Amino acid sequence: MGNLIRTERKPLGLQSIFDELFNNETFNTPKANTGNTTPAVNIRENENGFFLDFALPGVSKDQVVIKLDNDKLTVSSEKKENKEEKTENFTRREFHFNSFKRSFVLPETIDVSKIKANHNDGILSIEIPKKEEAKPKPVRQIEIA
Known about the structure:
Layout: E1 6-7, E2 10-11, H1 14-22, H2 25-28, E3 41-46, E4 49-55, E5 64-69, E6 72-86, E7 91-105, E8 116-120, E9 123-129
Antiparallel strand pairs: 1-2, 3-4, 4-9, 5-6, 6-7, 8-9
């Protein structure tokens, strides 16, 4: 197994994930909550492919867009909310806007025609299978004649 999925053209090994996490503006600069957040994502790999699990509480599957453009898989969402409360003396309006966009550069070993996604209980799961020729071959012993 190797570091095959990349974000922003960087390998997604443990070191680059930690680099991305600790070099993020969230840890370096205090800022106001703009409603633009990047959800937590778990990335797993086995001999059959990659598995991405996004934590998206409160986001319905209708609000999520997954696009594949050549070798780049992009997951994004926009959630707009407008609340209005009227009483005799005043009207109060609240507007909320949350969005995110995350892209992954896929290697050539991926079978893009078999990518699947599922949304269940606030978790978006994406299965990214490897091509058959990219899967590890079983070890076999060669008989000596």
